[in-house]
């Protein structure tokens, strides 16, 4: 299917979902979203996000270089993402691959030096596939990443390379509280595998060029249904033929819209770790986990 036809279909599906959401209390026609490989799960009534907001957004960025020609784009994309984060005061959640941080220290340091909150999450040391490695080998690679990054506080966010999920017991035991599942869902954080699965809604890459109005519609649909609008990307995937500007012209109005929604009190603008802390404390139904009947 051509890119334009796909985008038209997504626009039609999201418009349809927004209309159905406006008719009932967060009711959305699942079938329409299924056409664009997006699932929908209703949030518990009365769900509240940080700051008592009715919906939230988070943006996760996989900082990884697995092919040598991606070093330049990773650096350029990181710099531009930080500029956007700082311009609109929207925090980002970084999934740091340890090896990439060691090999591109300048970009990694730029993240640490940002005046706006940047959460450091873990993406293994060597971009290891959890479905190919055993649990001990996987744990060792995560420890190697932690040693390389030398963080002041224990990271709460874990992002699986290629979103290939496995070894939850190891992840939990190491103190992580949240991850980003593979499946795209509009809904609340899902308590699964002993962690909060903050499910992605939309992946941004070069193919998203010009899709600002579609991304804004997704954000509005999430706000209408008390869901988490979770965007994710890679710095290198925002750079086309060495030039980050086209994709950042697409992203600028999206960040601007998120800041405006935050200003109106419609959206908590969070890191993944912020959301995990909040729901660890209150649960998605406003009750502390285990404190209810
Ligand atoms: Zn990755």
Describe the structure.
The longest helix has 21 residues, at 3-23. Strands 2, 3, 4, 10, 11 and 12 form a 6-stranded parallel sheet that branches. A 4-stranded mixed sheet has the order 5-6-9-8. With 293 residues, it is of the alpha/beta class. The chain contains 10 helices and 12 strands. The chain has helices at 3-23, 30-34, 71-88, 98-103, 105-112, 135-149, 168-173, 212-224, 245-263, 272-282; strands at 39-40, 56-63, 92-96, 118-122, 157-158, 178-179, 185-186, 190-192, 195-197, 202-204, 228-233, 268-269. Helix 1 (3-23) runs parallel beside helix 8 (212-224), helix 3 packs parallel to helix 9 and helix 8 packs parallel to helix 9. The site of zinc ion has 5 residues, from loops. Residues 62, 64, 123, 127, 161 line the site of zinc ion (ZN).
- Give the overall shape, derived from the CA principal axes: globular
Number of strands: 12
Cα-atom radius of gyration: 18 Å
What is the CATH top level name? Alpha Beta
Helices, by number, come to 10
């Amino acid at each position: 299917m051509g890119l334009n036809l796909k985008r038209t279909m997504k626009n039609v599906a999201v418009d349809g979902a927004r209309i159905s959401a406006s008719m009932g209390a967060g009711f959305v026609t699942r079938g329409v979203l299924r056409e664009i490989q997006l699932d929908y799960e209703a949030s518990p009534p009365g769900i509240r996000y940080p700051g008592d907001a009715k919906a939230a957004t988070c943006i996760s960025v996989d900082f990884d270089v697995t092919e040598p020609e991606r070093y330049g784009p990773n650096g350029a994309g990181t710099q531009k993402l930080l500029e956007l984060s700082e311009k609109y005061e929207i925090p980002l959640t970084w999934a740091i691959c340890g090896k990439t941080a060691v090999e591109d220290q300048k970009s990694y340091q730029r993240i640490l030096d940002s005046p706006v909150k940047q959460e450091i999450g873990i993406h293994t040391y060597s971009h290891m596939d959890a479905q190919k490695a055993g649990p001990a080998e996987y744990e060792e690679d995560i420890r190697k990443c932690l040693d390389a990054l030398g963080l002041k506080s224990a990271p709460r966010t874990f992002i699986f390379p290629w979103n290939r999920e496995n070894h939850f017991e190891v992840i939990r035991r190491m103190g992580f509280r949240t991850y980003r599942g593979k499946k795209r869902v509009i809904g609340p954080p899902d308590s699964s595998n002993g962690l909060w699965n903050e499910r992605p809604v939309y992946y941004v890459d070069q193919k998203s060029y010009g899709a600002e109005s579609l991304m804004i519609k997704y954000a509005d649909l999430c706000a209408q249904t008390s869901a988490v609008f979770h965007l994710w990307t890679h710095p290198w995937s925002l750079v086309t033929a060495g030039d980050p500007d086209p994709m950042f012209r697409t992203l600028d109005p999206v960040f601007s819209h998120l800041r405006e929604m935050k200003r109106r009190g419609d959206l908590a603008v969070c890191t993944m770790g912020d959301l995990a802390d909040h729901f660890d404390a209150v649960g998605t139904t406003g009750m502390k986990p285990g404190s209810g009947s």
